[in-house]
Amino acid sequence: MTTIRDAIAALDQLAPPYLTLGSDPRGLLIGDSKAPLTGIVACLDVTHRAVEAARKVGASLIVAHHPLIYQPARTLLADEPHPGSVVLACARHGLSVACAHTNWDVAQGGINDVLAELVGLTEVKVLRVTAKESGDGIGRVGLLREPLSATDFLNKLGNVLGIAPRTLTPTRALAVQTVAVCGGAGAELLADALAAGADTLVTGDIRHHEFVAAAEQGFLLIDGGHHATENPGARELGRRLELALPGVAVTFVG
């Protein structure tokens, strides 16, 4: 019998725990590791929609990129939109919940490699090394196959991410060739991107003063959205889990 523990072991192979940044939550967060694994719902965030999808397909495990419980919770209340009511719904329906957060950001083939591939980068390297022994790290930097104007690059990015990316940097005279990417919130990697010779950084959750600082340096800082830059990597995690667990169906909720 395949159990939740088997799924967590597969998850740890794909996103090794030693890659986790700091004390970030990872692995099994809710549930019973000895319970049967009847299917998996993969998602970016554990929401009521993900819970309903798991009930509908008969899955016993939800695997998310973002932890359902990120900070210690003083209360878990039914009238709390998130995470309280979602945690209670998972418990009520006997669902286990696991996550691979920063370890999947850092892992080879994870969030940032998927984003780099979507953007069309070649000669991809780690942007900031966080695991010195293995050389793994957060963010990626690489080259476009051919230079693009900033306007054309923004249009291309909008097409692959499915949203309208934002920047405050004047784009008329800029060309894009060396691009850094960081799924989610990675504006703190601006200095790393500059040091790596990048002319552009694609990430999400960029604040106004970060846009201004980049524009003052003639650097193209682009907000592609937290969800849009990470959701493809969450889908890829589900695909990899399905390959690693023969006979276990994985349903993705985007």
TrEMBL record:
InterPro entries hit by this protein: DUF34/NIF3, DUF34/NIF3_sf
UniProt key word Metal-binding: yes
GO MF annotation terms: metal ion binding
Pfam families attached to this UniProt entry: DUF34_NIF3
Residue ranges of coiled coil: none
Listed GO CC annotations: cytoplasm
Record's keyword annotation contains Plastid: no
Keyword line: Metal-binding
Binding locations of a divalent metal cation: H65, H66, D105, H226, E230
Family statement: Belongs to the GTP cyclohydrolase I type 2/NIF3 family.
Protein's name in the database: GTP cyclohydrolase 1 type 2 homolog
Source species of the chain: Armatimonas rosea
